[in-house]
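Students often ask what a 'structure token' actually looks like in practice. Rather than answer in the abstract, let us consider DUF2550 family protein, a protein of 150 residues. Its sequence is given first.
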Amino acid sequence: MSLLVVVLGALLAVAVVVCALLAYRLGQLRSAGTPVLLRRLPAGADEGWRHGTIHYGDNALRYFRLSSLRPGPTLTFSRQSIEIIGRRRPEGSEADILHGMIIVELEPDADGGGHSYELAMAPGADTAFQSWLESRQSRRSQRSQRRRTA
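Now compare that with the structural description of the same chain:
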């Protein structure tokens, strides 16, 4: 009987830790994120979409996957390496889950790992994303600043 109590106590402790991690993760996602769906390319017409939020920083875009208990970001994109190569509306069965959203295709290697991604977001979020990208410091200006400090 005491072995059963110990096992049940251990299971209860694990459940409490998992619930605490989940509560922390949901709080982190709701704090200041923009809801998006992200998928890595290549993917089928309506496959691979993952719900999450993006958080804008000075030098990086951090993606937090909704269904992950990981304490930090799932993916990080360097602000200087993000380039938009196309926009489109949802097609076919994508329209069921992405109704009213805009899909933005990012240039390969935006994550520094050589992968291509698509982000699906609301039109207002797309405008904010575009503004954040356009307000970054240009690469040419960064090179001239490095020369001055050297």
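One point worth highlighting: The chain has one domain: 33-149. Ask yourself how you might have guessed this from the sequence alone, and why that guess would often be unreliable.
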